[in-house]
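Mods, move this if it's the wrong board.
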Amino acid sequence: MVRVQGTSDESGTSAITEATRFNLGSVSKMMTAVAIGQLVEQGRMAFDDPIGRHVAGLPDEIAVLRIDQLLSHTGGLPLFLHRDLQEPINDAPDATSLVPFVVADADRETPGSFRYSNAGYVLLGAAIERVSGLTYIDYLARNILPVAGIRPQPVGWQAGDAEGVDPGQQAAARAMSRLKAWPAGSMILSAPDLWRFGRALAQGRLVRPETLARMMREGIELRPATADRPASRYGLGMGVSGAGETVAIGHTGGAQGIDVSLRIYPATGSVITVMANRSGSDSLNAPAVAKAIVAQTQGQACDGKR
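Not the wrong board. Structure tokens:
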């Protein structure tokens, strides 16, 4: 089931359709995590490998960080996304080219606590490139998107794709929505294609069920269970909430002109995608819409877009 509403550009003249592609923001991190999971299954790396085993030129304090720490944002590395980095990201031919920017960023903390980090995902993308011999984007194009049933398509923003709209920060919203895909974010897909990715992950077509179970189980607890709500954790590249047949995994993506939510229910194979090209607010945002859809459909497979 698909619901479509609104316009895809600042002028308000181009209607969103089922085929409209959106910048996924950090939802893309799940694809990076799946790529790592595939390489672990092939025996080409391990979740507890130090990143320095697969990425050259790192200082000792970064080289010792484990892959699972980077996946779960517990490596102490910085957020690493600001306006000055947008041009280098757009110009970089591959993820490895961004590693020097990570090394140069001295904003590091002691590993162990949750600290959301795009820098760590740059290093994961570089590891994927070193181990696979492919650029990060080529790896996804060969090993993830087609396996999920997603047709070949341009990776970057194209005319007709949703453009970020934010009346208060329009220039920033436009730039963010057009940001080049990199290991920490900005893949561009339609809602049905993101739904296909979620279904393929739930059905064991991208990584084996036991690998997904480990990625859900490990990581760090963000919120303990209470009488009113289930526990929440950040696993290896994905948020995890609930328990048993109601457990959901997924990710959100948010920035100026980007508001996306992906929720996957592995036990049932249900997938919900919500995508917007307008910045979310405290009262109306993609995760809230996704939760409302869950409440209305009792977890039946659907995807939505506002």
